[in-house]
Amino acid sequence: MPDAEDIARRWEAGEQRFSFTTSGSTGSPKTIHHRRALLAWSASQTGRAIAVKPTDHQLICLPLDKTAGFMQVIRSLVWKIPMTVHTPSVDPISALPADHSFSIVSLTPAQLYAAMRSSGGVERLRRFRVILLGGDSVQPDLEKACLEAGVSFIHTYGMTETASHIALRPAGAAGFRLLEGVEAGIDPEDGHLYIDLQDFPDLGRLHTRDAAEWLPDGSLRIIGRLDHVINSGGVKIAPEPVEAALQTSGLLQGRAFALLGVPDAQLGQRCALLVQGAAFEPEWSRLKEICESVQRYSSPKALYFTAEWPLSDNGKLMRRELLAILQGGEAIHFPSCS
User: Fold this and answer.
1) Pairing of the two strands 130-133 and 257-264
2) Which CATH superfamily is 4-225 part of?
3) DSSP state, 28?
4) How far is CA 132 from CA 68, 84, 248, 277, 326, in A?
5) What is d(CA 125, CA 298) in angstroms, rounded to the nearest whole number?
C-alpha cells in the first residue's frame, strides 16, 4: 500500500500518470490509469465547491491504495493545506482528541455511523467544517440523526473512472448537484446515469451502473445500482429504496440487512431478506406493508440470518458475497416468511 509521503513525492516530482484499483463491490476489481491533469482538475473542483481555506487541515483515514484515500492526499497537495494520516478503521473519529483541530475529513457512511454511536463522537464530528461522505448510499435514519445532532455532511458521488467526485449533495437535500464542468444524462433504455467531463473529451462518455432520475429542481437522485436489481417474474425491483424504508421503520432492530434476488424456477428471481445476527421474528404484516408501499412485489418471500457481513476495505457492502453465503447454505432460514 502506498503511503502519503510516497504519493506526495511522486506528485511533486511531476509524475504524469497514476493507477487506481476499483473496490470490486459490484464486480471484479480492475485497474484504471489516470493522467495528472484529471486528478488536479478533480481536486480543484471539489475544493471550489467546499470553499477550501488556507487554514484548513485535512484528516485522512481511508485506505491510500483506493481512489478515496489516494485523492485525499492529492487534494491536500493541490489545495496546499496540511494533512494528517490515520490508520483506516471502522471508527477513526473516536481515536481523536476531543479538541482536535482538523477541519476536513472524508468518511464512509459506516464510519460516520460508528462515530455517531461512540462516546463523544457527535462532539468530535461537529468540530469538522466539512465532512465529505462517500463510497455508499446514506440510510435515512443516519441522515436524520446527523441533522438532529447538528452534524453536517456533504454526500459525494463519483467513481474511480472520474478520479473522484462529480456531484455533491448537502445533508437534507433531495438530490446531487453536478460540479462545474460535468455534464450528465440518463439512458432512456435502462435508466442508467452517464457522465461527460467537458475538459476531458478523450475519456468519452462514461457509463455508470447506477439508475438515476432528474428531480424538478434540476438535481439528480441516485436510485440504486442496476447490478442489484431483482428481476422477479418480469418485475424489476430496485432493492435500495425498499431497504431505506425498512431501515427507517426500525422493524429489523437496527441491524444490517440486504434485499437480494435468489434464483427461482418460476419467477427467475425472488426477493429474499438477509439480516445480520441471531434469528428473530419481525412483524410480518408491517414488514410486507412497508415493502409494498415502495414497490409492488418487493416484499421478501424468504428470510435468512447470518453472522457474516462482508464489507470491502472502504466500507461498501459486498452483495455478491452475501448472495454466496445465502446460496451456500451458510445462513439460517426462517421459514415463516416463505
Assistant:
1) unpaired
2) ANL, N-terminal domain (3.40.50.12780)
3) -
4) 10, 16, 23, 30, 33
5) 36
Q: Which CATH class name applies to 229-337?
A: alpha beta
Residues 56 and 129: beta-carbon distance below 8 Å: yes
Amino acid occupying residue 114? A
Task: Give the residue extent of every domain in the chain.
Answer: 4-225, 229-337
Q: Which amino acid is at 321?
A: E
The DSSP H or E segment spanning 255 is none
Q: Are 155 and 138 in contact (CB under 8 A)?
A: yes
d(CA 265, CA 191): 27
Q: How far is CA 255 from CA 116, 273, 277, 324, in A?
A: 16, 12, 8, 20
Q: pLDDT digits over 7-44, tens only? A: 999 999 999 999 887 665 555 667 888 999 999 999 99
- Compute the chain's Rg from CA coordinates: 21
C-alpha dihedral (39, 43, 45, 50), degrees to nearest 10: 160
Cell numbers for 166: 462529480
pTM value is: 0.83
**How many whole angstroms separate alpha carbon 291 and alpha carbon 257?**
14
Say if residue 148's pLDDT is above 60: yes
CB 192 within 8 A of CB 186: yes
What percent of the chain is modeled with pLDDT above 70? Answer: 95
